[in-house]
Inverse folding.
């Protein structure tokens, strides 16, 4: 199984995704602050980081760009999670270093499959 790190300023979203990922056998760490998450992510080196697109202080695009500066995270997948599903935002996320793109609201019935498909 894989290790995940969730960054979202919505604690309810983190709680839901954590339950779904842990139920599927994955380990999960999280933070509601992108700025505070950076050092934890660098320390933990998770297999995948799921980042909310729109957050205060530092948004998901800025976080992706920051994480991609670190060689030790070169094998870490970065998934952007957003309520914006159109191609323009998906392309912007990819340019910022995201490996994949997931849309909100997440569907508990398909979330794990969506994540696993996005990180392959």
């Amino acid at each position: 199984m894989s290790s995940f790190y969730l960054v979202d300023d919505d604690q309810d979203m983190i709680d839901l995704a954590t339950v779904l990922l842990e139920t599927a056998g994955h380990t999960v760490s999280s933070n509601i602050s992108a700025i505070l998450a950076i050092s934890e992510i660098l320390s933990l080196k998770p297999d995948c980081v799921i980042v909310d697109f729109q957050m205060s202080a530092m948004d998901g695009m800025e976080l992706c760009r920051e994480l991609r500066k670190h060689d030790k995270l070169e094998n870490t997948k970065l998934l952007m999670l957003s309520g914006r599903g159109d191609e323009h935002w998906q392309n912007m996320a990819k340019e910022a270093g995201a490996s994949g793109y997931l849309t909100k609201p997440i569907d508990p019935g398909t979330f794990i499959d969506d994540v696993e498909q996005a990180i392959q």
